[in-house]
Design brief:
The protein is an alpha/beta fold and 309 residues long. The protein is 23% helix and 27% strand. The longest helix has 10 residues. The site of zinc ion has 6 residues, from loops. The site of zinc ion (ZN) has 6 residues, from loops. Homodimer.
């Protein structure tokens, strides 16, 4: 089984605190290791985890406020310092290309790493990966912001005992998966006879935003949703005004979208006690609920069981 997990580097919005670094998240998903929103200090936070800069295959930035991108200079320079041999793709809102260019070349350094710069130009833009599709959706924030989701297509899990019963082995298995059936001595064996559906997994990353269609589009049926909850309901009016979510709103999105494991993060420093986020969200969401802490790891939940029929 390949590794699919979220490594949390930092969880503070706006300014770091003694307990929380600026934002930063790494998603390990098969052959992809994606760094999301590296805030200030992300390079050093990586040192406290099992992820190295050399592991990174892709960087996704939601928007160009400092708590989501001030870690780019250090991280990008580190890729060259470590002589990363593979190209690293970078996605960010195209309207922020000038900010990206400045951050990328913030100081002098000897550039050896290859960045594959692929800005997000439009709502709904999709990037095909080996392990699924990365999709960007426009969010509601004072500057151009995109959230991301990674969607693995539904597939099939072949049943070895059924394959063996029909004497199907080797390249014939691949042909059966590809074509959907196999003709054996005048009898047709269909894929459905020797497999069960394997629902694809989904990861969503929603940050920073007020409630909007993009939030729901990203969260839909996510196995793991990482979503900002900067504020509590006591500051709901302020949250709406500045384009942020409350813990209750984020939790209701998760419930309405069929999310399985919910990770709340991007906390305002005005709330020293994280239990308040938990208690507020718990009243609106009864699935797996995690109030993110720096330098913790969150596994993707086990694959959904396919519904009958
Ligand atoms: Zn932010």
């Amino acid at each position: 089984m390949s590794m699919r997990e979220l490594v949390v580097l930092g969880t503070a919005s706006q300014a770091p605190t003694r307990q929380r670094n600026h934002n930063g998240y790494v998603l390990r998903w098969d052959d992809e290791v994606i760094l999301f929103d590296p805030g200030e200090g992300s390079q050093r936070q990586l040192l406290h985890t099992t992820v190295t800069a050399t592991d990174l295959t892709r960087i996704c930035v939601t928007h160009f406020h400092g708590d989501h991108c001030l870690g780019l200079p250090g991280t990008i320079q580190r890729l060259s310092l470590d002589r990363v041999a593979h190209p690293v793709a970078v996605h960010f809102p195209s309207g922020g290309a000038e900010y990206f260019a400045r951050l990328r070349y913030a100081t002098s350094f000897y550039e050896t790493a290859e960045l594959r710069v692929e800005p997000i130009e439009a709502d709904g833009q999709r990037i095909a990966l080996r392990c699924g599709t990365l999709e960007a959706r426009r969010l509601r924030h004072p500057i151009e912001t995109y959230g991301y989701r990674l969607v693995e297509p539904d597939g099939h899990r072949m049943l070895p005992e059924k394959l063996a019963a029909y004497g199907i082995a080797g390249p014939a298995v691949g042909e059966l998966i590809r074509v959907g059936h196999l003709d054996l001595d005048g009898r047709r064996v269909t894929r459905a006879e020797v497999s069960v559906p394997r629902p694809g997994q989904r990861f969503a990353f929603v940050m920073d935003t007020g409630l909007c269609d993009g939030v729901y589009a990203l969260a839909e049926h996510a196995d793991l949703l990482v979503i900002e909850s900067t504020f509590l309901e006591s500051e709901a009016a302020l949250a709406a005004e500045v384009g942020h979510l409350t813990a209750a709103q984020a939790a209701r999105v998760a419930t309405e979208s069929g999310v399985r494991r919910l990770v709340l993060t991007h906390f305002s420093q005005r709330y020293p006690d994280p239990r308040r986020f938990h208690d507020e969200a718990r009243a609106h969401f009864d699935g797996d609920l995690i109030i993110a802490e720096d330098l913790t790891t969150v596994q993707l939940p086990p694959r959904r069981v396919a519904s009958a029929g």
